[in-house]
Amino acid sequence: MPELVLAGVLLLHGVTDNRFWDRIVDVMAPISRRSVETLLLVTFAITLVQKTSAGENHQPPIQKQILLSSRSSWDGEPYKSYPPGQPELSVLRITLAPYTQLEWHSHAMPSAGYIVAGELTLERKKDGKKQRFRAGQAVSETVDMFHRGVAGSEPVVLVVFYAGSAGMLLTQHSHR
């Protein structure tokens, strides 16, 4: 029995060379059954710790992170409702050159943007309220409120998601 247990322990460690195996059996044969059980228990514990440690370094196949969940726009104005009619989603990738200042504009539907690169400052026309957003941040856009974006010293890349209705304009410009 102890030899079978020892064989299992050694196989866990990959010992397969016959000459080496013979020497180990000669040394281990006089060891009591209790010592073999202890050796088996320690080997099992080491194997378990190794497998657990390997699992900690492995990334799960799917990771998710909520970037934005909001009932109001960046300036604190609550969203009221979606536009009536057949829903239409639009996704735009927008790139702004450094120091670009967009025209005053508004959106008639809820929208959200994700800043991929650069830094963008949003400004509300009615009172000049401003907020800066950096790469990796998401922003909930204003609805029916004139505002503009101003790029920082590097190009800005953003992806904007619009939740409108079929045929709606995504942006309306101010008539100054």
Give a description of the structure.
This protein has 176 residues and is α+β, with helices and mostly antiparallel strands. It has 2 domains: 2-56; 87-173, Jelly Rolls (Sandwich), CATH 2.60.120.10. It is built from 3 helices and 9 strands. The chain has helices spanning 2-12, 18-28, 33-56, and strands spanning 87-96, 105-106, 111-117, 119-124, 130-134, 138-140, 147-151, 156-165, 172-173. The chain is elongated and about 95 Å long. The protein starts with a helix and ends with a strand. 13% of the residues are buried. The mean pLDDT is 83.
Short recap of the structure:
The protein has two domains: 2-56; 87-173, Sandwich (Jelly Rolls), CATH 2.60.120.10.
State the fourth-level CATH superfamily of the largest domain.
Answer: Jelly Rolls
The CATH class of the largest domain turns out to be Mainly Beta
State the shape. Answer: elongated
Rounded to an integer, what's the Rg over CA atoms? Answer: 32 Å
In CATH, the architecture of the largest domain is Sandwich
Low-confidence stretches: none
Approximate strand percentage: 25-35%
- Tell me roughly what share of residues is in helical segments: 25-40%
Distance from N terminus to C terminus (CA atoms, Å) equals 93 Å
Mean pLDDT: 83
The ordered string of helix (H) and strand (E) elements is HHHEEEEEEEEE
Derived structural class: alpha+beta
- Tally of structural domains: 2
Strand order of the largest sheet: 1-8-3-6
Count of distinct strands? 9
Instruction: Say what the CATH topology of the largest domain is.
Output: Jelly Rolls
Helical segment count: 3
How is the main sheet built? 4 strands, antiparallel
